[in-house]
Backbone:
């Protein structure tokens, strides 16, 4: 038998314990800072909004149809901003959902490995384009393009930034839905093929239904991204609160309003200043809602098979 | 259904189904390649109609690879290649020929996999799947064939009141019988079983074995198993494979009691594999 060298088992080495504990404490602080910052943001939003709601009733805030905090005769109805937000996000989803889903279907079920390896970096690149670039793309390229089809389209409108946000979130929707589809076990695809199904039948009847909750989660995350998107709408939609459901008209979203006002020099503590926080709170609630919904759906699809 | 517990029964090879059995399919000089790796070497054997043929051998011997040639499952993997013939009768076509549509082959030869793999759909839709992909929409026809398939898989009595429940909620053994029902629903000429009990407990295993025995006589069965007792219990013919070659093939009782090849007898007596 070969001889083995063994180290002695000594009593606990205390300096080693201490070093480990210091490192652990540093790492914990870093991790905890994420929680602390999130909490701080929520607290600031709540405190400043509380100041706002002391002066403006919540009922007015939710039902008034005008948003003119900076006018002499100020009105504080969030509806026009909410409307602009929903409209822009809605147009974006009409573009992003079918496109993102088809990209995901193709990449997950049809594309040969080489094609997939070529397309994916481009999608990731699309995700990395700064949003300000998308904003000018909407204003200076898409709007003029749309004018060929809708001649009396104003220079600022919701349609064009909506479409561009849609294109912007396609990679996002596509990659999350593709993950969901690829998580469907291969044994299910084999079972389907063995029953005589074609690839299209397998994709539509087995893979997509099995991945449904993941795909819906992708849509929810897309909605959260679209409602939170700022630059594109601020640049190309016109920054004019407008209670309308016609995407051809100019309008402002919650995010666009915040940018607009935050850039001006409003006195700290004035109601116009506080209105930003109230608007921000609404936005936070919306995106949080969709994020939580997406999370719940993803948890479900993890358990499905 | 109360499954009979016959696990401990000694290998009592089943007799050959008929004195002069009809050939359902003949494999002629079949070679199969994964890229450059040759997984099957010059296999030649006949599969007899309405009999159970078992493929046995140690891991990596090519038994599953051979099984998956019958329904062209290898077509789903890139860089695979068939050479030689598997002729299917009475049509007398070579089903591994590139000119033959694998979907057509799978329409007539169905498969049950190693691990139960029901779709995340209802029990009913699991069984109806193969019928639906064939374009059958008539509710009464679907109902009838789903029931017949579930009866054929000895599952009907257990699930007839809950056909709308998800198939994935069944127990492991029930899931595998559901997969057998799914394979039976399309009225296949051959059913392929790829180690169908390796993920199941002994009682569920016994019920699946009973099912396979009861199926022979109506349908041709080819089963891959790593369990020699199982091969002895359920099959009429057994093929012993080793390193991609067919070493010995014959009626199960002869192969188990009087193997002609040294390698077969070594494997059967547990000297390797």
Residues:
């Amino acid at each position: 038998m070969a001889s083995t060298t063994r180290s002695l088992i000594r009593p606990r080495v205390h300096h080693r314990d201490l070093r480990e504990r210091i490192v652990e404490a540093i790492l914990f602080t870093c991790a905890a800072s994420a929680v602390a910052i999130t909490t701080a943001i929520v607290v600031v939003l709540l405190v400043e909004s509380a100041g706002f709601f002391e002066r403006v009733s919540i009922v007015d805030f939710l039902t008034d149809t005008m948003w003119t905090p900076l006018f002499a005769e100020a009105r504080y109805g969030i509806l026009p901003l909410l409307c602009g937000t929903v409209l822009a996000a809605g147009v974006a989803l009409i573009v992003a959902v079918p496109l993102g889903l088809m990209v995901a279907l193709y990449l997950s079920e049809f594309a040969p490995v080489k094609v997939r390896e070529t397309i994916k970096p481009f999608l990731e690149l699309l995700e990395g384009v700064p949003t300000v670039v998308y904003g000018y793309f909407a204003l200076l390229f898409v709007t003029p393009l749309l004018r060929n089809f809708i001649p009396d389209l104003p220079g600022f409108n919701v349609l064009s930034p909506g479409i561009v946000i849609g294109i912007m979130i396609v990679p996002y929707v596509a990659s999350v839905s593709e993950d969901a589809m690829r998580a469907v076990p291969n044994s299910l695809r084999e079972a389907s093929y063995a029953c005589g199904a074609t690839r299209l039948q397998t994709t539509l009847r087995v893979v997509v239904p099995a991945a449904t909750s993941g795909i819906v989660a992708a849509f929810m995350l897309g909605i959260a991204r679209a409602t939170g998107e700022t630059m594109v709408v601020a640049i190309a939609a016109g920054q004019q609160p407008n209670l309308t459901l016609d995407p051809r008209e100019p309008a402002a979203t919650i995010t666009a309003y915040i940018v607009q006002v935050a850039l001006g020099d409003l006195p700290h503590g004035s109601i116009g200043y506080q209105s930003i926080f109230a608007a921000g709170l609404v936005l936070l609630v919306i995106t949080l809602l969709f994020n939580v919904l997406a999370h719940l759906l993803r948890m479900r699809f993890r358990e499905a098979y | 259904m109360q499954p009979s517990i016959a696990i401990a029964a000694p290998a009592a090879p089943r007799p050959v189904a008929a004195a002069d059995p009809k050939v359902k399919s003949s494999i002629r000089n079949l070679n199969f390649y994964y890229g450059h790796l040759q997984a099957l070497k010059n296999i030649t054997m006949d599969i007899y109609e309405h009999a159970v043929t078992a493929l046995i051998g140690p891991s990596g011997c090519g038994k599953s690879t051979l099984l998956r040639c019958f329904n062209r499952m290898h077509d789903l993997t890139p860089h695979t290649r068939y050479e030689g013939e598997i002729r299917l009768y009475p049509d007398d076509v070579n089903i591994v020929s590139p000119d033959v549509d694998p979907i057509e082959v799978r329409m007539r030869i169905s498969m049950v996999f190693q691990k139960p793999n029901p779709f995340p759909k209802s029990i009913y839709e699991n069984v109806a799947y193969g019928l639906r992909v064939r374009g059958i929409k008539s509710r009464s026809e679907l109902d009838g064939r789903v029931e017949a398939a579930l009866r054929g898989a000895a599952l009907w009595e257990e699930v007839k009141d809950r056909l709308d429940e998800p198939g994935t909620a069944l127990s492991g053994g029930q899931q595998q019988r559901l997969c057998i029902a799914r394979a039976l629903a399309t009225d296949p000429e051959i059913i392929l079983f790829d180690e169908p009990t390796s993920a199941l407990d002994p009682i569920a295993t016994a019920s699946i074995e009973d099912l396979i025995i009861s199926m022979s006589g109506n349908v041709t069965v080819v089963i891959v198993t790593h369990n020699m007792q199982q091969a002895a219990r359920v099959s009429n013919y057994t093929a012993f494979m080793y390193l991609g070659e067919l070493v010995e093939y014959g009626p199960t009782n002869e192969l188990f009691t009087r193997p002609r090849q040294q390698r077969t007898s070594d494997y059967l007596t547990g000297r390797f594999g």
Q: What stands out?
A: Residues 1-18 of chain B have pLDDT under 50 and may be disordered. Chain B touches chain A at residues 71, 73, 76, 78, 103, 106-107, 110-111, 113, 115, 117-121, 129-130, 132-134, 168, 179, 182-183, 186 (CB under 8 Å). The first helix of chain B runs from residue 63 to 70. The longest strand of chain B covers residues 23-34.
